[in-house]
Amino acid sequence: MKPAPFTYEAPTTLGEAVDVLGRYGDEAKVLAGGQSLVPVLALRLARFEALVDLNRVDELAYVREDDGAVVVGAMTRQATVEADPLVRRAVPVLAEATRLIGHFQIRNRGTLGGSIAHGDPAAEYPAVVTALDATVTVAGPSGTRQLAAADLYDGPMTTTLADDEILAAVSFPVWGPRSGFAVREMARREGDFATAGTVVGVTVADGRITRAAISLFGMGPVPLRARDAESHLVGAATAGLDLTAVGAAAVAGVDPPSDVHASGRYRTRVASRLVARALESALQEATA
Amino acid sequence: MTATQAAPGSGVGRFLGQSVKRREDARLVTGHGRYLEDVLWPDAWHVAFLRSPVARGRISTLDVKAARALPGVRAVLTGADLDPLVKSWWQTAMGKDSPQPPRRLLAADDVRYAGEPIAMVLAESRYLAEDALELIDLDIETQPAIVSDHRGRWGAAKDGELVHPEYGSNVASTLPYPGMPDSNPALEEVLASAPHVVEETFHQHRYICVPMETRGIQARWDPARDLLEIVSSTQNVHEVRSTVSRLLGLSDVQVHARAEDVGGAFGLKCFVDSEELAVAAAAYSQQCAVAWIEDRNENLVAGGHSRTEDLTVSLATDADGKILGIKGHHVEDVGAFPTYGVGGNAGLAMMMLPGPYDVGQYFYSAEAVFSNTCGMTPYRGPFLMETVAREQLIDITAARLGIDPVEFRRRNMIRPDQLPFTTPTGLVLETITPIETLDQATEMIGYADFRKEQAAARAEGRILGIGIASYIEGSPAFGAAGAEQVTVRMDMAGQALVFMGSGSHGQSVETTMAQVVAEELGIDIDDVRIVQGDTISSPYGTGTAGSRTATTFGGAARIAGQKLKEKILQVAAVALEASPDDLEITDGVVSVKGTPGAAIGMEQIAAMAYAGHTMLPADMEPGLEAKHRIRNPPLMFSNACHAAIVEIDRDTGAVEIKRYVVSEDCGNMINPMVVEGQITGGVVQGIGGVFYEHFVYDGDGNPLTTTFLDYLLPTAADVPDIEIGHVITPSNTPGGFKPMGEGGAICSPPALINAVRDALAPFGGLPNVQPLTPEVVLDVIDGVPAV
């Protein structure tokens, strides 16, 4: 469990990092918190000519408000996100989901951008950006571009970012008043990647749901949106809502994977119930 | 919470029986522990093994030329290089004639499990060694693997394809042993005529030791000194020394083995396996220093596996639930290359299946089978299948008879008036207290009240259950393991060095044995230091294993301490011109009873014993040193009862352990805190085994759980408070101590499984499947047939 040889690059600015990455093309990998990449390297499941370490790029670690959104720099530690007052007030489900990532030691080191760029389909952050329709800022040789969350993932642990691009920041839209959110997951142990999980957001006006978002994680090659279930929710009265039916609708047609921890059949049953629980909690928050 | 029921004379003294803080902790918890990797020799060549990627096949190509040519690589060794060095290979405890699979250091012609070592690289660093592995050209013609499926049912073919053609059969061993009766006609009559006979097959999946510190060894052959020097992460340095000397045809005085701090073992480091021996052989043949630290991936795939067995038990009772007879048939999968002998644990399981019950007629048979998987190795309570199966069958039987499971146990347990009790397998139980621990455990957990709470919870749709399990912990101290020595030496300054053949790897030996010696000598515990884990300085011994530290080493330490105390008093008597019988030792000072002014300090006594020997009587040997080699019975016993309450999430099948209670009787406790730590650690391993840990192979023998991402260990977040009560009934061994190191791991699986079974009773039966993953549990709740 020792990595194959690689060159180590440690730029101190984003511009420098993009330049260094450009020199290597697809022979380099960006290193953020290292919580997933380092074990992969140690097991020699992947190898790169160079690692471009972003840990000295201070300009990528921040949380700020910007035009109705909360923008989080890619190198912001998960522990910082979890405790940040702005995040907790404006995007509470992001803080709530953060608590489910690993253990505190992992969150002290792991970064928001690293988790989102790594794109583990059973991880919490990709499901949050998917549910909230977040926007990702990507830096490359020709400047920066904005990428919608829906266009970010291509497959398991695969993004649509080019080899010479760096995920620089994530912008989380702040939902309006009378909104509620919840994240629920089933994991074998405290801190594990989810066997199945869901992030739910709703906005309620005059007893009816005006906006709904449901994402599923651990349920497919990428984080999924339960669009059909969402469309049935929008316009529905909160009173007497059949939560179980919404849960069933959310997993209809989903074909989750089987592995040593659980079968796809189990994941489907559990995800359906987690959606119902999360929706119940989100509705309570929205109508409180 | 701690409850204690102490019998009179429970051995509490200045240090004995006190929860003295662990002397190991200051260094271990502050990062100052010194493990093998902390003391690697700077000139050591680092080893990486090329391991088989498949379970079974013929090696058609093995070309190491490119790897040898990589700069920084000293050698790439194959079976052709190393195996000719092997003179003999056997374990001391098993004897040289004990059957075992054909041993090899490195696979040469064929491979027999995924992970089997094929070649070893010696390089300047582990990094370079792993680079060189990638340059080895290996081709294997894959053959169908002989494995059980991932649910653990036995697929090992009895005929045709063989794991070891040289062995002639896939059946590694059977019980009864040749010469023993192959049936019990009286039991058959009972089974045919009893009002109730319940038979079930219980399964235990593959789960493993996984100590925090993996295996590791460094070895250096120094021809100038004619010495092979070894530092190993081991439970038993003398076994390392002797296995290596036998392997290479050296004498025991040509090999020096020692250990540093050992970061856990749980049985994995009792014996010496092929990788460790390959390192010693490489050091010898290459005439250099060689080091190997097993990484976690290797540890999981090839570090020795455990459990993996079925036990079918038939239990006959009368109409009132009195047990009339028990019959057991045990099938074990021992993998390809078990670390010792043929690896089976049925011999001990056979002795222990009756447990703390008066079972009437009895018979036990067993079969161990080879498979193309990693070999079996001892793991804390290696024989625990007997308790795992019996305690589940008792709950199932009690339910069928409509008898409360606690009452069922109480009716059948060995009563105090039956002691000493001889079991059907000839064990003599003298000081066990199963009913007392059952009573204490059920009282602590509030068993009667729980049944009311459970009924109310069920009415609300909540799923609660309680599980009870009882057992006798048998500590095997066969052969040399029952004859350990302790030497206590007091030098001129009056402090004591204590030399033992133990190999502490987390048992607090440095604390508990110092308590015993300090108590006997009347000196401060800080004036006692334990020396162990070194074949040059330690008395010959069998290391730390089998829960024997308190009984064998503790007993020997107590008697050696008494002998030295007598000598101290004899020397002091000369100085004080008094009779030794009139003297006492208090806080390191010897004084005449009733005349505190007539006193002499330990330092003066020690000086007189050595430098002042001319003042001693002519027939008195100078010096202050005493030793005792104990002679213990081959099996010693403690007993306990575990009780667990669980609640199950209706939607996910997740199990939460709400309470966990242990009542135990390990006799006099040297250190109650250490006893409770041992119990807690064992229970955590049981929690891991029942709910999380599972080493999985696919149908072709490919390992699927090769990192901690997939092999799930319980963490602090998954473990409840363990509440422990003590019943103290001294044993008849010196000190009144009893063995207790493994019981936490032995009794927790059935207590937890029984709790889940009880919780799921309204949903129908719990399948005999392990581990109890959320999916297994949810399938029962949802009425979905198991996969």
From TrEMBL, chain A:
Protein biosynthesis recorded as keyword: no
Domain FAD-binding PCMH-type: 1-177
Alphabetical list of Pfam families matching this protein: CO_deh_flav_C, FAD_binding_5
InterPro entries: CO_DH_flav_C, CO_DH_flav_C_dom_sf, Diverse_Substr_Oxidored, FAD-bd_PCMH, FAD-bd_PCMH-like_sf, FAD-bd_PCMH_sub1, FAD-bd_PCMH_sub2, Mopterin_DH_FAD-bd
Keyword Oxidoreductase annotated: yes
PROSITE patterns: FAD_PCMH (PS51387)
Key words of the record: FAD, Flavoprotein, Oxidoreductase
Protein origin, superkingdom: Bacteria
GO molecular function, one term: oxidoreductase activity
Protein name per UniProt: Carbon-monoxide dehydrogenase medium subunit
TrEMBL record, chain B:
Domain Aldehyde oxidase/xanthine dehydrogenase a/b hammerhead positions: 30-144
SMART domains assigned to the protein according to its UniProt record, in alphabetical order: Ald_Xan_dh_C
InterPro entries: Ald_Oxase/Xan_DH_a/b, Ald_Oxase/Xan_DH_a/b_sf, Ald_Oxase/xanthine_DH-like, AldOxase/xan_DH_MoCoBD1, AldOxase/xan_DH_MoCoBD2, AldOxase/xan_DH_Mopterin-bd_sf
Transmembrane feature ranges: none
Residues in the signal sequence: none
One Pfam family recorded for the sequence: MoCoBD_1
The keyword Oxidoreductase is annotated on this UniProt entry: yes
Molecular function in Gene Ontology: iron ion binding; oxidoreductase activity
Gene3D superfamilies linked to this entry: Aldehyde oxidase/xanthine dehydrogenase, a/b hammerhead, Aldehyde oxidase/xanthine dehydrogenase, molybdopterin binding domain
Keywords from the UniProt entry: Molybdenum, Oxidoreductase
PANTHER family, per database record: ALDEHYDE OXIDASE 1-RELATED, XANTHINE DEHYDROGENASE
Protein name (Swiss-Prot/TrEMBL): Carbon-monoxide dehydrogenase large subunit
